Amino acid sequence: MADTDEATVAMIEAANDASLDAPTCDFGMLLAAKDLSKTYGEGETATHALKGVSFDLCNGEFASIIGQSGSGKSTLLNLLGLLDTPTSGTALYHGIDSATISKPARALLRNEMIGFVFQFHYLLPEFSVFENVAMPALVAGKLSSAEIRSRAVETLGMLGLEGLTDKNANMLSGGQKQRVAIARALMNRPAILLADEPTGNLDTLNTNLVYDLFREISRETHTAFLIVTHDRSIAERTDRILEITDGELVADVRNSYLQSETS
Amino acid sequence: MLPLRIAWRFLRSSPGQSALIACGIAVGIATQIFVGSIIISLQANLLDTTIGSSPQVTIQAIKESDPVRFTPAMKELVYGDPRVKPGSVAPVRSVPALFSNGTDSATLGLIGGELKDLNGIYKLKDKTIEGKASLGNGEIMVGKEFAEKFGISPGDAVALSLQGGQSGSFTVTGIFDLGSSQFNARQAFVSGKVPQNVLGWANDEYQAIDVQLVKPYDSKAVASSWSSRLPGVSVVEWQGQNASLLAGLVAQSASSYMIQGFVLVAVALGIASTLAIAAVQKTRQIGILKAMGLSDRSSGRIFLYQAAILGVAGSSLGVLLSFAILALFSLSPAPFTINMDPKFVAASAAIGIAVALLSSIIPIRRTSKLDPIEVIQNG
Predict the structure, then answer these.
(1) Among A65, A210, B16, B288, which lies 20 to 30 A Cα-Cα from B325?
(2) B6 chain-A contacts, CB cut-off 8 A
């Protein structure tokens, strides 16, 4: 992180401390997607994966993105996660325009504000469960060893993984690996957790376990969740559904509507 | 130091691959040290054989038959020059003699001087293989080949016919071997008084002032500076008289450097290719670390540290291996011993580490450029 310009670091830290007030958000505005578009290729072969998607997300909001395979929902999540760069448009985190900051500053923003959970766990097989979970804090380099250990143990406890601390990541079951990946995503206490089909490789039991955990964590830590899924029943367990079809945001449905429709 | 920690863990996760690459560096560095040390020792041996027991700079009269006067000024110049090896200045007089044992005869060049002076140039005490080094009145030291040819042993008397019809009988005190059969067969050492009496020269008149230097390759500069300060005499030095030997040494050094250079290139290619493969193998891990916020610079450092660890381990192992090869070599009946110069060994190890670091450029560039989305999208 030493190669990030100091001004950007200060800006991100200030943004972390005081999020923008938004009249519609109880805990302030977290994220603003502004006309996000992504086009692969050029000319006649160009594929428009995402076409001008705009929406806002509040701190602590528990939302999902739903859409058919190839609809552009993962592309949207990657753009929001600053893993990919949009062809046009931008994503603002606590008012910081991700399009205008340097690459190291984007890395810092990812490290401090965003947690990722993917369909595949992407654990580092060379490291233990504890080290995998601690890795985002080690990358940040801000906490002492004792603080990192204490927080990693606490996070593993939140996910019921206390006994697995010193095991190699390769030794775990699929469900355990995914829970370790979730613990890792939460290690830096991010403002938002972006999850792309996080239970795609899990059985029903583990799937329910993961979503119950997401909900509990969201409630306890006010971490915002944005979960990509193609499964409507999963999406309906969230407070808000953003529906993507052919790269366009075609619906943005709130919890109250869902409740009234399902009741 | 997260990149170092990750580098170490990556290396430990593939112990076979890490050991192989370290062994590759070790073999390269051991070869480099061994070949380099052989050439250095061989050249030192050759140089020592050629000029180690002979004058490296000689002050003589311009006309060969004339004496050169070893004046106080000349003494001050020669003895006061720091480039001159202490105790290695020998004023000598030489005369030809004819040896005859009744049935056989041979010419013998008599080199006359003080034993302590001659010892400084010819290492007579060390090179005496039978009897002892002594050059008192009526005493003579003869060479190994001469003694073998005529069946002479220490204590024997030899009769010599000297220049101007004089003759004399000398007692053999010791038999020397200066490493040159020609010298051993044709030269003998006597007291300085013998040639002085034959030639009828004054006490400060000599055939030549023989000198050895601290650094033999300084001979050109020494001869040049003395020539300008000693008018009326000739100053000759070994390099001017051994041009072909010098050319041989230079060619030998060039071939040695070439071998060492190719060894290093082979080592560099080995490390570079293995590290590049390691970078590909760890693409997923690097991608996810970058997604977590690891910077391009830090992710590049992972492979720099891997190269540094492999370079240090491989070079250290290489130094140990070279010692083992040297120990094995010392068991063989080689005509010379290999001496390892600690500076050369340290330089070789440092070069090994530097080559390893340079070899990490490709994986560092690849890793730095890797975009986490490539890993996320491709699973």
Answers:
(1) B16
(2) 126
Q: Judge if B87 and B173 occupy the same domain.
A: yes
Residues with Cβ within 8 Å of residue A127, at least 6 apart in sequence = A135, A168, A169, B9
- Give the end of a domain, one of B170, B202, B231: B231
pLDDT tens across A28-71, in order? 888 999 999 999 988 888 899 999 999 999 999 999 999 998 89
Domain-terminating residue out of B204, B231, B258: B231
End-to-end CA separation in angstroms for chain A:
50
The superfamily (CATH) of domain A6-262 is: P-loop containing nucleotide triphosphate hydrolases (3.40.50.300)
> Which residues are CB-neighbours of A247 under 8 A, at least 6 positions away?
A38, A48, A49, A50, A51, A53, A71, A72, A75
Separation in Å, CA of A103 to nearest CA in chain B:
8
A window 5-34, beta carbon within 8 A of B: none
Average pLDDT over residues A81-90: 92
Question: Which tokens sit at B198?
Answer: 């034959």
Maximum CA extent, chain B: 107
Residue B240, in any domain of the structure: no
Q: Residue type at B69?
A: R
Whether B203 is in a domain gets the answer: yes
The residue range of the domain holding B316 is: 2-48+246-378
Domain residue extents for chain A: 6-262
Q: Which residues of B touch A122 (CB under 8 A)?
A: 284, 288, 291, 375
Query: Cβ of B12 and A126 within 8 Å?
Result: yes
